[in-house]
Amino acid sequence: MTIDDAPRDALRGGPRELLRWVATGAAVSRADLSRLSGLSPSTVSQRVEALISQGLLEEAGAGRSRGGRRPRQLAVPTGGAVVGAIDLGAHHARVGTLDLSGRVVQARTRPVRIEDGPEAVLADLLGEVAALAVVPNGPTPSDAPAAGALRGIGIGIPGPVQHATGRIVSPSRMPGWNGFDVAAFCADRVEVPVIVDNDANLMALGAHRTTHPDLEHAVYIKAGTGIGSGVISDGRLHRGAQGSAGDISHCRVVADPAPPCSCGNAGCLEAVASGAALVTALREQGVPVDDLTGVIRLIDDGDRHATALARQAGRAIGEILAVVVNFFNPQVVAIGGRLADCEPLLASMRATLYERCLPLATQTLLIERVTTGQDVGITGAAHLVIDHVVAVN
């Protein structure tokens, strides 16, 4: 059984949680960790020493005394080890390095052509991560990561990923990627662990760790060119049996006529309410628009066709999420991606949720935007790697 499969009670006070408490500032000493975890001081000390030996924690001086010997303060190293992160999209990728607390050290956005195929795209992005990992991140050369400082790389893919194998399964709008083993391809080119997951899962993990780490149950929707979602259950990312948990994109909604979907069915949420669907619908109405950026511009300008379609899309997303909320009963539903800033869509989604959900399910439900910015995906990718590093050491 892996650390991700273990019951949550068994993880309380485990290495990953001790590291998280120090990284978030909830604990600065062994005594703090003992108090938060309920573990004995000797057990905490053993686990802290193991994390220090792995380079995941360090002692950063003495803290304030409360009547005895001054406690040694703990901190997550920030000047050495880093993790690499890639948040891949259809047209752009966000690439960065983050320290072991999940803080962004360096990040940049670069254009990609997903149709160029996995070998070309991934080789280029891995080279970008390697370059960032050796570039100074501060004002002096001493701030540069040391050789071998890269501890792992997390990669988010805009399509279904079998997480256990790192293989892509039947993605839409990703020609040449079906069945590609991303993890194996990367393992032949880098000497550190590479963890692969769906981009919506990484957005969910990054948003949850950054904004709502205290909440146990949450659903995060990524609405851009496509639509996906990530699920946090019992405080952990929930992937299901094969890694497809949270994939709402091919749930059918009531639509007349039901537009065809890339999966071969008709009336799927992605075919009705995604950014790509809005572009197609506007073109069919004779509205000249090139891409999702153009759609959002029309909505911001009050174009009646674009605004009406955004409201319809919000209702469709709300109808699917109402089933999710009634079934799963999360504490928060948050929407991210480029369509999250579309107010008519968000208002329509929220209204549909309140209309279709049981009062008990929405009594304390938070419905909000993901507010963590463009680095939410690489933040999630970094936490995925950090969790893996802690689990295997």
Automatic annotation (TrEMBL):
| Superkingdom per UniProt | Bacteria
Which SUPFAM superfamilies does the record match to this protein?
A: Actin-like ATPase domain (SSF53067), Winged helix' DNA-binding domain (SSF46785)
Name the protein family: Belongs to the ROK (NagC/XylR) family.
Cross-referenced PANTHER family, in alphabetical order? Answer: GLUCOKINASE, ROK (REPRESSOR, ORF, KINASE) FAMILY
What is the recorded name of this protein?
A: ROK family transcriptional regulator
Q: Report the source organism.
A: Micromonospora vulcania
